[in-house]
Amino acid sequence: MNDAERVEFTAEMKKDYKILIPTMLPRHLKMLASLMRVYGYDAELLENSGREVIETGLKYVHNDTCYPATLVVGQFINALQSGKYDVHKTALFFTQTGGGCRASNYISLIRKALKKAGYGYMPVISLNFVGMEKNSGFKLTPLMVRRMLYSVLYGDVIMTLCNQAKAMEVHRGDAEEKADYWTKKLVEQLGKSSPLPYSTIKKNYREMVRDFASISMTKDNRIKVGIVGEIYVKFSPLANRNLENYLISEGAAPVMAGLLDFLLFYVYGRIIEHDMYRTHKKSIVLLKLAYKLFLKKQKDIINIIKEESDFEAPTPFTHTVELVKPYISLGVKMGEGWLLVAEMIEHIDKGTNNIICTQPFGCLPNHIVGKGVMKIVKEKNPGVNIIAIDYDASASEINQQNRIKLLLANATKDL
Amino acid sequence: MQQSGKTINVGVDIGSTTAKIVIRDGEEVLYKKYERHYSQVRQKTLELLKEAEPYLSDKKIKIAISGSAGLGVAEIARLQFVQEVYATFALVEEKEPDTEVVIELGGEDAKIIFLKGGVDERMNGTCAGGTGAFIDQMASLLNVTPDELDEMSLKCEKVYPIASRCGVFAKTDIQPLINQGVSKNDIAASIYMAVVNQTIAGLAQGRKIKGKVMFLGGPLFYNKGLRKAFRETLKLEDENALFPEYSLYAVALGASIFAEKSEKTYEYGKLIEMMEDAVAQRREVAHMSALFENDEELKEFKDRHGKETVEFKDIAAYSGDAYLGIDCGSTTTKLVLINNQKEILWHYYNSNKGNPVDVVKEKLKEVRTLCGDRIKIRASAVTGYGEQLILNAFHVDRGLVETMAHFMASKQFLPNVDFILDIGGQDIKCIKIKNEAVDSIMLNEACSSGCGSFIETFAKSMGYDSKEFATLGLKGNAPVDLGSRCTVFMNSSIKQAQKDGVSVENISAGISVSVIKNAIYKVIRANSPTELGEHIVVQGGTFLNDAVLRAFEKEIGHNVVRPAIAGIMGAYGAAIYSMGLGIEESTLMSLESLENFTHTSKAAVCQGCTNHCALTINIFSDGGKYVSGNRCEKMTSKGKIDEKLNLFEFKRQYFINLTAPFEEGKKVIGMPLQLGMYDLAPLWVGIFENLGFNVKLSGLSSRETYLLGQDSIPSDTVCYPAKLMHGHIELLVKEKVDAIFAPCLTYNIDEKVGDNHYNCPVVAYYPELLRVNMDILNEVEYLAPFLSVSDEEELARELSISLPENLIKADKNRMLEAVKAGFEKYRKYKEDLYAETERIITRARELNKKIMVLAGRPYHIDPEIGHGIDLLACSLGFAVITEESIAPRVGKVPTNVLNQWTFHQRLYRAANYAVTQKDMELVQLVSFGCGIDAITTDEVRSIVENAGRIYTQIKIDEINNLSAVNIRLRSLLGALEMREGKE
Questions:
Q1: Is the pLDDT of residue B786 over 80?
Q2: Of B68, B527, B764, which has the smallest distance from its Cβ to A334's Cβ?
């Protein structure tokens, strides 16, 4: 990276700059924006969407770049052009994993697009945990990272409960209402500088689970559909044309693993690399600690959900890892890597035999871990239905729906 | 009337182009009907139901709707919908329960259903174009009916390789065959073969098609040649290939089976009422603003463009000198005769009817006759796809590359023109002009071509001629938004629009806008209109369509010039060019010779090198001969090319001769020579030879390599080099090697000049994908360990734990010795490579040759991947070197992107070096489907252009034809010449 030309986010800017965050997981990121305020960052989650965002993206990003880049850039530039923000007092915020997939280049693509659109002076903050791109005005403190972790966990719990409740609720909208209520409540809590002891967090989990469990639900035997795939397309309704809601409207119940799994995959992936190639020697102790901590946090959530409800709890990550070993090497780490395969198997393991693999059109890692493993997954699990759906700016919705309908028709036959 | 109250079952199938209805009483078919719906899907369904009234009234009707366009109809009319694959499924169970596989090709859909041993359905995804529509399109390209196409195919002698992924690609391959005069019979059969390959590679994706196979759908029902191609390719016995007479109605029949199972019955009147309601409903569709707000705008538009014209003079009243220009384009042939005032005396524009030589012959006769003794044709020039063919056939004085011809012509209309956009039948050309010289040229990459002829074919399929269709578009009040990717995607979007009941006017206008957006955002990749230029000339046949022209003006926000002769600009430019040549006596064929002129063509395979080019030899009656299809001039010019100034060839030879001769008694390790192996093979060969093995590299790829492995490819959009891996593995297994070694490398060699040193995901993990997708690997010891190559000791450690002991017994020290030997061999390879590079550069400079840095990835030297572009460049007079050969000449370079891939950082370094050398031109090779190249191309382009140099990019795929590449490279040469002329 050409560090000399990069516009840094300075301590000076921290005082009065607005920091914009793109939508990927709306609930998770809303909480993230809120907690950032505690540490003096005026963060805001973008909510603009629709055709305009896509069109703007197409104008400012190479059209062969993956769809998520088009959307992220489209959303940023569209927001900047809306006149809603003082563009000389605005910074952008994006995560960067630093993996071998081209997604690591989103930050560069955002910068290029900014330049093209005439905002070359705007700083872009990279959120990463590998020390790429330092900014004097943006520093991760341990307490802030801790709060970030809990916003991820809260988000995951809400998502897990909401999806399940939404698919079974008697009154349309009950689950969504509770999710909104909890998001709002937690956003407020995370946004206050008062200490946040773990007991409070666990209490929140418990109340959340109870609250969602109180929704009146049907006993219908709905078709469960597991959604796996490239992380942005999988989670972002803007990218996947609101796949979750579409499935629910078709009478199916969508299931998906949370963001914590991705964090675990990321940390555990480095531990594996240490085993395989003797790399990450300096950070290995820390990595192992983080891994243990994350596992513990996941376990707490699993236990609480099990204790308080009939909802299906997330699969323990260690089990997830065991599940995937017969299918693909844990050395496959780019993009979602083996985690994508693991999520397929995890769904099957829990009796969800219908899986939609979502990916941006032309996604490189997905050639390997998406379409590349379908043969072996089907061979080892006869009766499983898996389809791959490509998303991009011009993919026809009818074609996508047709394929989903086919999956559902197949599933109905099996019921 | 029949007995009342009886229950009957109705199945309706609404596909992308046709609607079918079947009425059954139990298994007995009472009535059936099959009609094209011309996108009026709800209306047509209603009509079909009304026509069937005698069978339906007074009955209890059970109904189910199916088909790709049926979903919308069913939803709006609130009738039962059955997924079409399921409908097919039900039918097969009823009719031929022991069928194992169903292959169904529809207008735009292709499906394979596996019924036995794990039910599975495969439908074409977003990137696998239509089949029926594709065949129709190809037929019209050849100017025959689909029936004639079928008959012709049965008489074929030779099948040519045609890209099988999607229709647009195939078309790019077919067009040059037509222009080269390949027999139509052969082309017809090749088209069918492409459809077969597409179905097998794109849909079966690794699953073998065997047992009893049922073929359904229109194309397979009507085309005997296609059936034959399927049966032969799949090696099916007659009794295992079912072509049922109900083929066309299969889905409708299946739907009727579902109807029977449903509880709901309707009275006839009620059903009609529901359908009428559905017809009356309008749904919200994404649309854009109208092309014209009002009639005044339309009038202003027509008046303005009416003025952009050249003088026409009556040829009968003229005598004196004249100049002839010929543009033998991809689908059309154009001729223009001008006087010395550049006024047009005579011109011609028409489809080349698949046979440009005949058309040009007739027209030359006509113009020679018109000229008589009064007018003397002083000079002539030819341009376009068929340039060389026409040049040789009729002794035209000079040929010129089409981009130059267009620039010449445009200057006549807008002397300060700075941008020319030409959209032809299947190609888009953009020419940027700076300082009165061609500054850069953009041609459409294969995936977005076909736009112009797409409109024509589409208009036809809806029952309009293209002019009528365009006129309708001008009236669209709310053009439908169809997206801006390739036409295959557009087909699906149109399907959706039809489903939503959008009017023909708005579809026509929408297509025009999409073609334009495609050109601006996909091909030119502009961010704002100002980037294109201020003085824009548009031309090419597609701009004769007023809707397209208007859409362009609207999209860029200002007016442009469309010469009234937009369709014949290439020919006009060629004529002007010939005028400037200062030729005294033209060599153009005389009327007398034209009278006796005949032309035959035959196919042959060149044996000059491993490329084995499929040649077409054109023989003319005056003894002249023209060979096309060849990549190089080796066989046609008797070895005039200096092959020694080609680093691609050096590398190929190096890799072929990399391994030591086999020694008796040693075990054999096979390695697929593809992807990263084209860089690291010396390392691995060195290690294993040191460990006492014979090493077998699978060798250079060919089309056969691809075909050999195509049925285990799981992702049809992965890059071609990856697809070839499957064939390499097959080859090695056939060789009965003791083990196959294909390491997975997340990280490549760390050359310490980037932010990281990754491989791309495909290069890194493809061996792992092969492991779980190729059953044949069970027959051999397959070693695909995850390794790192940055440290000798570490690699030795990894190898000693990951290689099986029964194959290799080596302790850590022994392994380290082998690894050291491997790295030594790799270092030696690099030294030899750099030495040869230096030699080529020095020699090229002595000979005053330009040096082309053909920059891509190490594996682009493979003849099946690079398609011999290096040889073509040599034949155009370049010396050829590669990106990695000059990368070490600069250190770490600043980049605007995360510079984290080993192969790609070499690109940036090479670009940085090349621009400092006056005689080096960088041409970037890009593999289609390479997601990373979306990042590298922008970066390399900016490095090159910021240095004030010309950036050229060539996208390569399965496409095996170099015509387009030839244009690009010649345009580059033309631009360089003009630049030098300026200096």
A1: yes
A2: B764
